[in-house]
Amino acid sequence: MTRYIISNPEASRGEPTRLNGTVKVQGAKNAALPLIAAAVLTDKEAVLTNCPDITDVENMLKIYSSLGGVTERRGDTVRLRLEYMRSHEIPSGLAGELRSSVFMLGSVLARSGKAKVAYPGGCDIGLRPIDIHLKALSEMGVKVSDRYGYLLCDAADAHGAEVTLDYPSVGATENVMLLAAGIPGKTVIHNAAREPEIEDLGNFLTAMGAEVLGAGTQVITICGTKERGGVEYRVMPDRIAAGTYLIAAAANGGSVTLKDVRPEHIFSLIGKLRFAGAEIDLYSDSVTISASGRPKAVGVVETGAYPGFPTDLQAPFSVLAAVSEGSTVIVENIFETRFKHVAELTKMGASVKVKGRVAVFEGVKRLTAAKVQAMDLRGGAALITAGLKANGTTVVENGYHIERGYVRPEEVFGSLGAYIIKV
Ligand code: EPZ
User: Fold this and answer.
1) CB-based contacts of 271: which residues, under 8 Å, 6+ apart?
2) 371 to each of 190, 213, 225, 343, 423, how far by Cα in Å?
3) Rounded to the nearest whole angstrom, what is the distance from the C-alpha of residue 249 to the centroid of ligand 1?
4) Is 332 in the pocket of ligand 1 (CB under 6 A)?
5) Does ligand 1 have an atom closer than 6 angstroms to the CB of 163?
6) CA–CA dist 28, 412 (Å, integer)
7) Are 256 and 280 contained in the same domain?
8) Is the domain of 336 the same as that of 383?
9) Phi/psi at 116 (nearest 5 deg)?
10) Per-residue pLDDT tens for 293-348?
11) Residue range of the domain that includes 291
12) What is the CATH classification number for the domain harbouring 250?
């Protein structure tokens, strides 16, 4: 079982390990996953560069292979080819493992006219229903039935449509884009998700031969095509990994430069970190943060759909809240149970009260090392960040959660001066 061990020799002198140096930000997990789903749409070769080597991506590539695809990874470049569909069923073992398998639905339906997928269960952060996905696909003529925990979908009569999402769901937006790109006709998505990863998917589908306008805005128009060519595409930088590292620098102090990052993707976080007292310089594709002394509490942080404060940075940010001077209120508006890391932070001396979707932190000067459990991906990353700040040696167990979305965080933090190993 993977564990991360973070020790803090500086802490004995009252000072946490300051972080100093320059790191390149990995490719975005939440862009790479829909792009792999989009590669199902073509029988030509798709090449993804800057594709992060993380377990969620590897599992998505396994699903792609189970459909009849061939994949090859060389460093951060992944080559994919699905010349002939061998199956239209997304294996339940993998579907259960990976929430994002659900948006394979759109592309498998477009490519083969039918799809079978295990109902993606809830996960560590909430129920994760897919009603918005299914309602939109049904409005496009997809017939959906469920049997013994499987969804059986038939897209023989699928057509372009004007759909309005009840909520700007990222996955539902991607699913509709994938189906729409693969069938003739025009589809318009209203109340679409505006996350940058949607824009990346729109660019990829356009490069493949579909016509996609407005990706990244609330209204997306897709004109699909039966003629889909091969694509070579660079995965966008991971804004959540970038934000995680910036938060760690703000909490610990030091001077850190992140290369290959799109500052405009994390403006909501940058505003909060500046308020906490960090100095942040923005460049076209890099960000430099300098912090010293104890961070100041920022008041209220509410997560929201993009461009609001990202729910995926809520857990990492809670570590900054835990050690800031003053009180911080964090409101998690997107997922029902995304505070599982808080109980672990209290084991490290954090002073926090949780009621429903609200967590109130009274900042403490130092955290205390402890053995803690990662309960989900971003909560696990938060515990590593907390270990950097704690007196003594922290052990973060269930590290497999963290490996789902972060490329070798022990190397990233180690290169910035942290004492961290993975065992
Ligand atoms: C994507 O999940 C991301 N995952 C999540 O990142 C991210 O937290 C989330 O978007 C919000 O930004 C990937 O891109 C692979 P949603 P997704 O559909 O698509 C409810 C991480 O840590 N909802 O926008 O599942 C849902 O329950 C992960 O990298 C419905 O009710 O998010 C949630 O409360 C975690 N019905 C809210 O909408 C539906 O049919 C947002 O979900 C779909 C969603």
Assistant:
1) none
2) 46, 49, 53, 12, 14
3) 27
4) no
5) no
6) 16
7) yes
8) yes
9) -130, 125
10) 999 999 999 999 999 999 999 999 999 999 999 999 999 999 989 999 999 999 99
11) 4-26+237-422
12) 3.65.10.10
Using an 8 Å Cβ cutoff, are 90 and 108 in contact?
yes
pLDDT of 34: 97
Distance of CA 128 from the midpoint of ligand 1 (Å) = 7
Terminal CA-to-CA distance of the chain, rounded, Å?
8
Residue positions counted in the chain: 423
Catalytic, 51? Answer: no
Nearest CA to 232 among 129, 81, 106, 344? 81
Locate tokens 């470049």: which residue?
A: 77
pLDDT in tens, 174-196: 999 999 999 999 999 999 999 99
Domain final position from 196, 216, 234? 234
Residue after which a domain boundary falls, among 218, 234, 250: 234
Select from 296, 299, 367 the least CA-distant residue to 330. Answer: 299
C-beta 136 within 6 A of ligand 1: no
Q: What is the pTM of this model?
A: 0.97
The pick from 105, 139, 165, 169 for probing ligand 1's pocket by mutation, whose C-beta has the most ligand atoms within 8 angstroms, reads 169
Ligand 1 centroid from CA 326, angstroms? 31
Tokens of 80: 């994919």
Same structural domain, 252 and 337: yes
What CA–CA distances, in Å, run from 51 to 32, 64, 77, 102, 341? 6, 15, 6, 20, 28
**162 and 77 within one domain:** yes
DSSP state of 235: P
